[in-house]
Amino acid sequence: MRKLLLATAALIVLAAMPALAPAQEKSVKIGFISTFSGPTAVIGNDMRNAFELALDHIGRKMGGLPVEVIYENDEIRPDVGRQKTEKLIQSDRVNFVVGYIWSNVLLASLKPVVDSQTFLISANAGPHQIAGKLCSPFFFSTSWQNDQTPQAMGLYMNQKGVKTLYLIGPNYAAGKDMLGGVASTYKGKIVGEDLTRWPDQLDFSTELTKVRNTNPEAVFVFYPGAAGVQFLNQYAQSGLRGKIPLYTAFTIDSLSLPLQKELALGVPGAQQWVNDLPNDANKKFVADFRARHKTYPSFYGAQSYDAVNLINSAVTAVNGNLADKDGLRNAMRKADYASVRGPYKYGNNHFPIQNFYLQDVVKDPEGNLTLKTVSTIVENSQDRYAKACPMKW
Amino acid sequence: MLLFIEQCLNGLQLGLLLFLVAAGLTLIFGIMDMVNLAHGSLYMIGAYFAATFVAWTGSFVAGAVLAVGATLLVGMLLEVIAIRPLYGRDHLDQVLGTFGLILFFNELVRIVWGPAGLRVPLPDWLKTSVPILPGLQYPTYRIAIIVTALAVALFLYILVMRTRLGMLIRAGASNREMAGALGVNIKLLYTLVFGLGAALAGLAGLMQAPILTVQIGMGENILILAFVIIIIGGIGSIRGAFVAALLVGLIDTIGRAFLPDLLRLFLSYRTASAVTPAISSMMIYLVMAIVLVVRPQGLFQVSGK
């Protein structure tokens, strides 16, 4: 009898739940997925810091509704990322899922989000599949498509007249995109290419020996996070530093610089955002971030900061009516907010059409190493998969 | 040819580092019948100690010596406090207990040294590369690793085969009840062996430190390889660990070095680069599987087991 009563009670509660849900939303719920443990926790923390700063800048309200954020750790593992994403969708019932450093984690997590018609804002990863065939009306990026940044680097190496090039990167979704991106714009000859085990291979002696024997004019490398520190270290120890110039994407940033130190001097990188871009939104972001955390924000942080403002622009446009998904989407497509990279437009696949800059490592007045914009490599670059995306608007 | 020699040196260097970790593991497993998953944590602790002591003394060599000594002490302390109660227990209990130690050490390191990771700077004389054959430059530091590890291997051989302590260790490995009955202080012997294993792991960790970033969880990847090595080499056998470590180091390196060119004969350029890491790491486990089928006791069996 007691069991029966319990079961009946449970059924009544279950039946009542959908009736409660559509009632007017009391808050904007945002789920944030990033890496908060292990050696890459520094990236996740930087993203969270920038995200929190952006929320404080808008008074932690969007369209009159208070904002609630739930942070989840993906442990750099696609399976964990997907589980946490499903938890955010099914039990927390968030309105937006934001974050994702790693392309393989994002690819594993995309389907549960877009199938539930929840918006996913990638604040970093941009795998080519989502820019092309898997593009979705519920996906937006505040970063880039993976190929774009190395494509800019390829163009820069053409300008520098590099004739032979060796490519090295990690063997996962983004690594393959990055090397493919360079190869698509670089005009010289690619004389060697290595993809290394990810994320556990950290000794690159085998690959560096091959580089030395191939003797290319330059090496292009993509190693995000701590692996970038190890690569530069070993490049110097192998005696290649100063002999064969390095060109990079996402290998030197404000989080890895304190560990790379002087080894990063003179190694160029491409980026869509640099901390010294002279627009007002960026000046405010960098100054307040530095005041609060005593360090420079990274591009990961800048993209997370933009994600808050993109969502805010959409929620404000629909006056807090989060059920109006078409209204939210149409508002986000305008990218009508003060991005810290400066104004940009969205392509049909919801990836930014934006400028890419050449950045270099310099010392700031206090003697800390930081990144500086040198020049614009390419203006209004759109990724090369947009045509494969069937979405039109 | 020069390329092949250089890649063999890379493999040798990797193999010797793995040997240092595997030697301690095989001693502890073989003699004390103790599955120690926390061995990788001692490798990590060695690296963190090195980072601290090198910064503190300003000298790489002095910092390294202090770090090995400190790891030895941590190992002995750990044995007395946490490992000793696990001896009589089932292997599963030991796995659970030492897995808990991994979590404990990772969190401890996060509290003491922070989550960001540290770098161990090398002195200038180790930063360069030297010619070892006409036309073949090799990083000085990697040569230093090879020489140090070979010296340690020789020291271990002499210690285990030629000294009284080594005789007791071997006696404990063959039959610990009998050794105990003959009046050997097994408790003290175990503490010493555990400390020695910890110091070897710490040495491996600190020698890797300048090449890699010192970071939380750095011991976990190498621990799996070390277990593969002691299974191939035969549990409890130092000689087996030496041979198997070199085998694993060479297979891994040579695979990564030459497989892409081989695969590019019949696969597209990008596909070949993408499957290489998978195949070369698979080969190690393939070797282990073959050894387990053909010689389940490992290449070198410890007598009396």
Written description of the protein model:
- The complex is a heterodimer of chains A (393) and B (305).
- Chain A is an alpha/beta fold.
- Chain A has two domains: 26-144 and 278-353, Response regulator (Rossmann fold); 148-271, Rossmann fold (3-Layer(aba) Sandwich), CATH 3.40.50.
- Chain A is built from 13 helices and 14 strands.
- In chain A, the strands form two sheets. In chain A, strands 7, 8, 9, 10, 11, 12, 13 and 14 form an eight-stranded mixed beta sheet that branches.
- Chain A starts with a helix and ends in a 12-residue tail after the last strand.
- Chain B has 305 residues and is mainly alpha-helical.
- Chain B has a single domain (2-294), classed as Orthogonal Bundle (ABC transporter involved in vitamin B12 uptake, BtuC).
- Chain B has helices at 2-32, 39-57, 60-83, 91-113, 124-127, 140-162, 164-174, 176-181, 186-208, 218-233, 238-263, 269-294, and strands at residues 129-133, 136-139.
- In chain B, helix 10 (218-233) packs across helix 12 and helix 11 runs antiparallel to helix 12 (269-294).
- Chain B is globular, with a radius of gyration of 20 Å.
- The mean pLDDT of chain B is 90.
- Chains A and B meet through helix 2, helix 7, strand 8, helix 8 and helix 9 of A and helix 1, helix 11 and helix 12 of B.
Brief overview:
The complex is a heterodimer of chains A (393) and B (305). Chain A has 13 helices and 14 strands.
